[in-house]
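Run log, item B.
One chain of 299 residues. Sequence copied directly from the ordering sheet:
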Amino acid sequence: MASIVLELQQDALDRTVRVSDLLRKALVVARKLGLTEIQGWLEHELNGYAASEQCPQYREVTGRVMGWNPYRGWIPVGFNDAEDQKRLSARKCGQSIAELESLVTDSGRDSGYHMPFPVDQTLRLSSGLELRTQLSLFTQRSALVGIIDSVRNTVLDWALKLEEGGVLGEGLTFSPTEKAAAATATHNVTNFYGAVSGVQVQQAGSNAIQLSTTLPDPEALGAFLEQIRAETPKLGLSTELQAELVAEADTLEIQARSPRPKPTIIKESLRSVRTILEGAAGGAAGQALLVGLTKLLGG
């Protein structure tokens, strides 16, 4: 029968195999061999690290602290103290590998991500900075890719050490001799652990981690909404469609003013606005609004 340890090595080398799937296979091996330390690490990577738990050093990401401005969007936050800036520009990410894989897969290569600061920390920072708003640490896609790759490399290194120690297994079965040898071949993961801080990562411009698009510029959105309100009576819409367009504009205005706008709502409202405008695009007003919407969306 095939060796699961050798299969584990092959999977670790195969970029088409998701790291979350690799971890599940590694967990089977760890439990079969009775290796509690590596088992604990695998379970944390599969399920995530709670704020009260220890988070590996390789899960630290660096970036830039940004604050939400309702008129200008996300803007950099300046610090008078260089040590404060350095301390707040690095945080630990405790999300499960599957969640991080989803973030990386569902976004483009140029996507950014942000980690909102906890409410209590945001209040303290806002007080010191004279800025009452949402604060987040913005980081790059490469930081998440680095975490995922570190986990893949750790599993590969562990599987290689098992083979070096004569631990291969027959199918899913290991002999008593192999179990004894595995205890000395186990990869030491204790050096990875450090205090966890800020365990959630979200895509830049988004409170919904599945969204890959960024928010429209708030100032441009405000100008577009003023254009909608001025031109709506000229569109020749039915009473029902006109009321729907006004309602969508109201929704967008509320989101534009919110310190924590919801991109999913903005995206759906803009989609509804586009559908309505496309039905009224025969007139000059409808055409002008469609042009304005295209510019707003960066098209």
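Observations after the first pass:
- Residues 190-198, 205-213 have pLDDT under 50 and may be disordered.
- The longest helix spans residues 141-164.
Flagged for discussion on Thursday.
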